[in-house]
Amino acid sequence: MDYKSSLIQDGNPMENLEKQLICPICLEMFTKPVVILPCQHNLCRKCANDIFQAANPYWTSRGSSVSMSGGRFRCPTCRHEVIMDRHGVYGLQRNLLVENIIDIYKQECSSRPLQKGSHPMCKEHEDEKINIYCLTCEVPTCSMCKVFGIHKACEVAPLQSVFQGQKTELNNCISMLVAGNDRVQTIITQLEDSCRVTKENSHQVKEELSQKFDTLYAILDEKKSELLQRITQEQEEKLSFIEALIQQYQEQLDKSTKLMETAIQSLDEPGGATFLLTAKQLIKSIVEASKGCQLGKTEQGFENMDCFTLDLEYIADALRAIDFGTDEEEEEFIEEEDQEEEDSTEGKEEGHQ
Length: 353
What we know:
Elements: H1 3-9, H2 13-20, E1 34-36, E2 42-44, H3 45-55, E3 72-74, E4 81-83, E5 93-94, H4 96-111, E6 132-134, E7 139-141, H5 143-147, E8 156-158, H6 159-267, H7 272-291, H8 313-320, H9 327-352
Antiparallel strand pairs: 1-2, 1-5, 3-4, 6-7, 6-8
Helix pairs in contact: 1-2, 3-6, 6-7
C-alpha cells in the first residue's frame, strides 16, 4: 500500500491512515496476524481463512490427520486468484510492517483526547451519543430516546451486541458472495473449456469430412479417366477399321481407273488386228476387277457409340442423400443396397432361363 501518497492527499493523516488499515472482509482494522497475498493486498488471517474455507469446503482444516494438496480463492480486492499449498492460509507470509503500523496507530489514538465528532450523536438529543440499538425499529439510538423519547416503548439492546451480530452476519454474507463468485468463475471456466473443445471437435470432423469427399472426388476422377480411355480405345479401333476400308477401296478405284483408261485407248485403235490382240485380255481383266469389288463393309450402326452411355441418376440420388447419421443407419443403407443387387442378379438369371 502507498501510505505516503494517501496521507498527503488528506488533511487528516490519522483518519486517512485508519482507512488504509481497514480489512476488506470484516471492514474493521486489521486483526493480527495480518497476511499479505501474492497480489500485495492484505487480509486478517482469520478473514483470509474464512473466505478460503468458503471457496474450498472440502479442504481439510489445519491439524487434521488427513493431508490434502491445498486449494485456491480470489482476492476480494482485485479478484486475483491465490493458489494455496497444503498449509492453506497458514502458508501465507505475515505482513509485519502493517502489524507494526497498526500498533503505532493504536498507541497514537490512545494518547489523543476523544473528539466530540468521532462518535455518532443522536439527532433528537444532540449532546447524547448513540449507545443502544432499538430492536423494534431496527435503528441505533441513544439512552434518552429510550427513557423519554420515541423509543420509550420499544425493546432495545446494547449497541455492541447488535454490532457484533450484524458484523458477523455481514461477514457471512461476504463469504457467501466470495464463494458464489468462485462458483460462477468455475462455471465460466468450464464453459470456456467447453467452447474450446467444441471448436477443436468441429475442426476435426470438418477435416475428416473433407478427406472423405476428397476420396470420393479421387474415385470419380479415376473412374472418369478409365471410362474415357475405353471410349477412346473403341473410337480408335473403329476409325482404324474404317480407314483400312477406305485404303482398300481407294486402291480398287485406282486400279479400275487405269483399266478404264486402257480400255478407252483400245477403242480408239483403228486397226482391227491390233485391237483384237489386246481386247480379249483387257476384257478378262475388267471382268476379274469387277468380281474383286466385293470388299468389306461396315455394319449398320457401326458408328453408334450408345453402348457407352451411363445411367447415373441413382448414384446422383445417393449423393444427394448423403447426410450425417449413426453407424446403424449406414449399416442399414448398405444392407438395402446389397439386397437390391441380389434381387437384380436373381432377376437376370431367371430371364436367361
